[in-house]
Amino acid sequence: MNGEQERGDIKRGTPLTSGLYRLSALEAAPLLLGQHVVRRTGDGEIRCRIVETESYGGIEDKGSHAYGGRRTARTEVMFSAGGTAYVYLIYGMYHCLNVVTGEQDDPQAVLIRAVEPLTDADAARMALYRGGALKKPTGLSSGPGKLCRALRIDKSLNGIRLNQTGGPLWLEQGCAPQKLDIVEAPRINIPYAGEYEKLPWRFYLRNNPWVSVRDRQEPAFRWK
Q1: 200: Cβ–Cβ under 8 A, 6 or more apart, which residues?
Q2: Global pTM value
Q3: What is the mean pLDDT of each successive set of 10 residues along the chain, which is 224 residues long?
Q4: What are phi and psi of 18, to 5 degrees?
Q5: What are phi and psi of 109, to 5 degrees?
Q6: Can you list the domains of the chain with their CATH numbers?
Q7: What is the DSSP string of 79-107?
């Protein structure tokens, strides 16, 4: 867990720049790598580094819950202004955390697929919430459902503002993503997305053991 060592001169508690939340999901997804999720609990704050993300961008994306402009009780939060948390339940048992980005009424969201605890103390708190025996330490938060359980994230946090520090959940600056070795790959488990299924809209840190699924080829992401 070397996230603390990579923070450089960034002061602990520095919120993400507001400009990131105004970007499209595809632009924001790689930029969220290396940044920190902060969860305030009754047992203390937990900080984790984001190591894997997926982009779901706009009404044209067949992999998105808001494809075709679908506005329901569940998807309405996706149409909020960037900086909002979108938390939903899958398979009736696993929660997923997304960061809404972009402008009001343009449903853009980045799924946080995996995080790495910054310290042993953070990992210990997460293990208390995660429960159950782990085959390996990285199983603590190497997947969207796992990390939500380990951070005690559920639908009660749906719609909160992630750009406001001091609440139950927010995002902080970590290390500069441009300095990281990032892989781009297709998203996971969206066979219904047609021609959008194979697009390289998933991003993760190369050789990071907390990543949920590795691509066989692992093509490098290039900043534009």
Answers
A1: 184, 185, 186, 219
A2: 0.94
A3: 44 87 98 98 96 96 97 96 97 95 97 98 96 91 98 98 95 96 97 97 98 97 92
A4: -65, -25
A5: -150, 145
A6: 3-205 (3.10.300.10)
A7: GSPSSBEEEEEETTTEEEEEEEESSTTS-
